[in-house]
């Protein structure tokens, strides 16, 4: 593929939710690992609740 | 003065997932994508605390729309991507009609757009969850014993309301989790989370569907299921029910058509203004807007049906508005005509006598069945075209944006002046027409596939989405690998 060829980049259609590079300094930043850890923890919690109660 | 300034403090402070600093290696990207997928499957297997497991009580609130809205009935991810899709519809309509006044090239407006997106999803999560939890007793039925246990904990006489709040909290957290999981995949992984969840769900159904086909054919071949091919009923059974022949053909055909349509394109030649010999092509694909706008049309129909159910559960809906049979399918009234055709028994009135088509044809006449198919076709074809136009506009794929991008990359169309306006004129000859034709075609395909039935009843839209998302994912992975290869090659040869 030559450098000048405009394939891919231009056609990249976003998903249903769009994310841009711009970010506000005030925004709360979450580490992706935190989200995954919370997801696993929350799932396990509900599972335990179902068994225990 | 405007809404932007008023909402700015809230919108700019919406929490978001960190962006990676610099380049994420391809293997790490695959790792994140796979990890999120595992988490998604894990969460779909966990039934919400306080409800009965699936199979007891009422059916799925999303019904046949489940295959495109992802998630799993009564699990933590009960809402699936429903709220995200609904929020996206609102944004598309506002953006398409240019009511937002946001310029997505301006960093300040980009932040506002992102924040608005999140706020809308959260609002839609609440709006979808509240009627499911508080207004209907059949969608998330309270498990026997749960409210008594909870009443003991809380110390109030009746734990019913407390249990409902607890169920609401769980599916709300599930909705928020899905939003952040999508953001992780978009920023750290390959493709988008929403696409990933749709393919995950549909593929799961497809595999189960193919196993069912295999099992049924095993029965037919060994003779344990009596199918007489030489009678009309037996032949129809072989085609539509036990034999799944039509469903198999439709499924394979949709695969082939989408992969073919992905390669149908109008190519606009480009050449570099300064570097001679550097040539390129700008492809305007037949399904230029991709199949994603389709999900918006379907979700609109799902929301309409949801409204119908809500109205009838309140118990005061007149018969001209909506009428349901025992299994919760609309068989009369306005909402019957607005319900999409989901399976062959929805329109083959001479076939399966338990289907809605047979019931309606016997009670009201065949013309009403045909009318409903007509409404669905019109809705999907017109809706597909309209949402495709909006989609192209809001994702910067329109003539104006692409012309600007081509101009900025230093390319020009040979034989034309190097000028944004000129490129835009040429683009205007192709993009709007291709978008409308593509959108309408995808709508038609989705309805046809539903009418003929698909393996595992994944629905036509589900199948179209899956094939098209997988194709995009494949393209993205190929591109990703190419980018990965170049610096590596350079390193190898340089050192």
TrEMBL record, chain A:
It is a single-pass membrane protein. Signal peptide: none annotated. Pfam families: Sec61_beta. The keyword Transmembrane helix applies. It is found in: Cell membrane. GO terms for cellular component: plasma membrane. The chain crosses the membrane at residues 34-52. Belongs to the SEC61-beta family. Component of the protein translocase complex. Heterotrimer consisting of alpha (SecY), beta (SecG) and gamma (SecE) subunits. Can form oligomers of the heterotrimer. This is Preprotein translocase subunit SecG. The gene is secG.
From TrEMBL, chain B:
InterPro entries: SecY (IPR026593), SecY/SEC61-alpha (IPR002208), SecY_CS (IPR030659), SecY_dom_sf (IPR023201), Translocon_Sec61/SecY_plug_dom (IPR019561). It comes from the Archaea. Component of the Sec protein translocase complex. Heterotrimer consisting of alpha (SecY), beta (SecG) and gamma (SecE) subunits. The heterotrimers can form oligomers, although 1 heterotrimer is thought to be able to translocate proteins. Interacts with the ribosome. May interact with SecDF, and other proteins may be involved. SUPFAM superfamilies: Preprotein translocase SecY subunit. Belongs to the SecY/SEC61-alpha family. Residues 38-72 form the Translocon Sec61/SecY plug domain. The keyword Membrane applies. This is Protein translocase subunit SecY. The gene is secY. It is found in: Cell membrane; Endomembrane system; Membrane. Keywords: Cell membrane, Membrane, Protein transport, Translocation, Transmembrane, Transmembrane helix, Transport. The central subunit of the protein translocation channel SecYEG. Consists of two halves formed by TMs 1-5 and 6-10. These two domains form a lateral gate at the front which open onto the bilayer between TMs 2 and 7, and are clamped together by SecE at the back. The channel is closed by both a pore ring composed of hydrophobic SecY resides and a short helix (helix 2A) on the extracellular side of the membrane which forms a plug. The plug probably moves laterally to allow the channel to open. The ring and the pore may move independently. NCBIfam families: 3a0501s007. Its main location: membrane.
């Amino acid at each position: 593929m030559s450098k000048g060829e405009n394939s891919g980049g231009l056609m990249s259609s976003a998903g249903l939710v769009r994310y841009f590079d711009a970010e506000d300094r005030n925004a709360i930043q979450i580490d992706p690992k935190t989200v995954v850890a919370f997801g696993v923890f929350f799932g396990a919690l509900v599972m335990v609740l179902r068994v225990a109660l | 003065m405007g809404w932007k300034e008023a909402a700015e403090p809230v919108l700019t402070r919406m929490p978001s997932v960190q962006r990676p600093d610099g380049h994420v290696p391809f293997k790490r990207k695959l790792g994140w994508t796979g990890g999120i997928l595992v988490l998604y499957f894990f969460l779909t297997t966990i039934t919400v605390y306080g409800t009965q497991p699936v199979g007891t009580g009422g059916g799925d609130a999303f019904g046949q729309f489940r295959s495109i809205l992802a998630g799993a009935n009564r699990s933590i991810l009960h809402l699936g991507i429903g709220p995200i899709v609904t929020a996206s519809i609102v944004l598309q309509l506002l953006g398409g009609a240019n009511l937002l006044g946001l310029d997505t090239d301006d960093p300040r407006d980009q932040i506002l757009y992102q924040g608005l997106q999140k706020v809308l999803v959260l609002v839609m999560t609440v709006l979808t969850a509240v009627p499911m939890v508080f207004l209907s007793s059949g969608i998330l039925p309270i498990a026997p014993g749960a409210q008594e246990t909870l009443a003991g904990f809380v110390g109030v006489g009746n734990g019913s309301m407390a249990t409902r709040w607890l169920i609401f909290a769980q599916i709300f957290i599930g909705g928020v989790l899905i939003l952040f999981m999508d953001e992780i995949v978009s920023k750290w992984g390959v493709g988008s989370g929403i696409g990933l969840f749709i393919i995950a769900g549909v593929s799961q159904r497809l595999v189960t569907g193919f196993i069912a086909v295999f099992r049924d054919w095993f029965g037919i071949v060994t003779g344990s299921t009596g199918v007489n091919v030489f009678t009309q009923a037996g032949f129809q059974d072989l085609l539509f029910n036990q034999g799944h022949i039509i469903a198999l053909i439709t499924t394979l055909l949709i695969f082939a058509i989408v992969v073919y349509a992905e390669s149908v394109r109008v190519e606009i030649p480009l050449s570099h203004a300064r570097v001679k010999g550097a040539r390129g092509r700008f492809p305007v694909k037949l399904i230029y807007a991709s199949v994603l706008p389709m999900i918006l049309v379907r979700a609109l129909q799902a929301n309409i049906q949801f409204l119908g159910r809500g109205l009838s559960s309140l118990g005061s809906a007149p018969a001209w508005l909506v009428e349901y049979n025992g299994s919760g399918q609309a068989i009369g009234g306005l909402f019957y005509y607005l319900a999409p055709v989901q399976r062959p028994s929805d329109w083959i009135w001479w076939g399966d006598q338990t289907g809605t088509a047979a019931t309606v044809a016997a009670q009201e006449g065949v013309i009403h069945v045909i009318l409903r198919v007509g409404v669905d076709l019109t809705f999907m074809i017109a809706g597909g075209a309209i949402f495709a136009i909006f989609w192209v506009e809001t994702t910067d794929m329109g003539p104006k944006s692409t012309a600007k991008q081509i101009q900025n990359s230093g390319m020009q169309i040979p034989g034309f002046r190097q000028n944004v306006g000129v490129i835009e004129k040429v683009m205007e000859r192709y993009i709007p027409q291709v978008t409308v034709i593509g959108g309408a075609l995808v709508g038609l395909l989705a309805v046809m596939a539903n009418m003929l039935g698909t393996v595992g009843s994944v629905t036509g839209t589900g199948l179209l989405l899956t094939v098209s998302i997988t194709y995009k994912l494949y393209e993205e992975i190929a591109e990703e690998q190419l980018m990965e290869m170049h610096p590596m090659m350079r390193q190898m040869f340089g050192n």
